Amino acid sequence: MSGRDRQDALSRTALGVFRLNGQFLAVSEKLAEPAGLTAAWWQVLGAVLPEPLPVSGVARVMGITRQSVQRIADLLVRDGLAAYAPNPAHRRAKLLAPTEAGCAALARIDPGHAELAARLTAELGGPAAFEETVRVLERLSAALEAVEAAAAREG
Questions:
Q1: Which of 28, 42, 46, 152 is the most exposed place for a label (fewest CB within 10 A)?
Q2: Is the pLDDT of residue 105 over 90?
């Protein structure tokens, strides 16, 4: 593969990911709306569903800025969908966790989420094909992180 071909592949990949991002955001807004959430609220609540995290931890998981997560977290807390709890590992960085109301809102999204997952699985050709898609995207993300980390060390 020539240098030009590699550049073209990178451009096509980036454009594809940007398009996917827009598509996922639009679908996520539709799925979250009946629960009274936005896609961003759903993302933040979903990130802390398995375990409470500090805002910086949510930002790392989501790949966005801490400030963006902080604004959403404060709105979720204001509306009673999440709460801050003491963090034994860091006095000032409180942990964010969903409340009972937040968990109930997430549960209202689940049927639509399950239906979309089933439709995508079928469209992609079955569970194995869907899993391969996930692996490729995760590999791409890890490779980009490695390239960025190497560039940071060099520069």
A1: 152
A2: yes
Distance from C-alpha of 73 to C-alpha of 69, rounded to nearest angstrom: 6
**Sign of the CA dihedral 146, 149, 14, 72?**
positive
Average pLDDT of the chain to the nearest whole number: 94
Q: What is the length of the chain?
A: 155
Q: CB of 105 within 8 A of CB of 76? A: no
pLDDT tens profile 71-103: 999 999 999 999 999 988 887 889 999 999 999
Give the C-alpha separation, 137 to 87, whole Å. 32
Contacts of 129 (CB under 8 A, 6+ apart): 121
Of the candidates 27, 28, 24, 26, the residue with the CA atom closest to the CA atom of residue 45: 28
| Separation between Cα atoms, residue 35 and residue 37, nearest integer Å | 5
